[in-house]
Amino acid sequence: MKPIHANLAGAVALSFTVAACIPSPDSTPPPEPVQTQPAPAPLPPAAGPQPSFDNWMDAPRTAGDWSYRSESGGSVALYGERQTDARFSIRCDRSASSVTLMRAAQASSPVQMRIRTETADRTVTAQPTGGQLPYVAASFGARDPIFDAMALSKGRFAIETPGAPTLYLPAWAEVTRVIEDCR
Asked: Which domain holds residue 142?
């Protein structure tokens, strides 16, 4: 058996060794402030061709939301971002039993407008509206099957016209409501 004072001496020596390795809190100087440079501003996106997708239904939705309003003689659903002009609209004219699709686009003569849905793909001729804002428009009979395809599409449809970005639009209730208003 070892004498107890031998173990006690080892413990005391160990505690002095550990205490010598840890500085007292008062002896540590406070860290000096580090000046940092502000992060550089992000670069604007490069202008160039639109991204392409193997399947147009995989493309991200065009920024914006639908809004609906009733008008005398019909109704309209407008798609766009708040506080900006609509990028796209669907307008019902009950007296003519027609629905007009309008999209923001520069054109001085008729252009081809392609409407893509999950079940239908149609190209029609759209006319410049001649208004203060640049739009092209195409009108259809209210019972045209393209509207059923738009309303019942797998959550979205696309509108393509030359010289303007493709619109990838959600098939929300406002779309169906305008179509039903005209039927």
From this structure: 59-181
Alpha-carbon distance of 68 to 90, in angstroms, equals 10
Identify the DSSP state of 147: H
How far apart CA 150 and CA 79 sit, in angstroms, is 14
Q: What percent of the chain has pLDDT over 70?
A: 71
In percent, how much of the chain has pLDDT > 90? 60
Q: What share of the chain is helix, strand, coil (3-state, %, to 5)?
A: 20, 30, 45
d(CA 77, CA 89): 6
12 pLDDT more than 70:
no
Number of domains in the chain: 1
pTM of the model: 0.70
Look at residue 25 and tell me if it is in a domain. Answer: no
- The CATH number that applies at residue 133 is 2.60.40
Listed in sequence order, the residues at least 6 apart from 70 whose beta carbon sits closer than 8 Å to its beta carbon are 181
Any domain includes 110: yes
* 92 domain residue, yes or no: yes
Q: What angle do CA 32, 33, 35 make, to 5 degrees?
A: 135
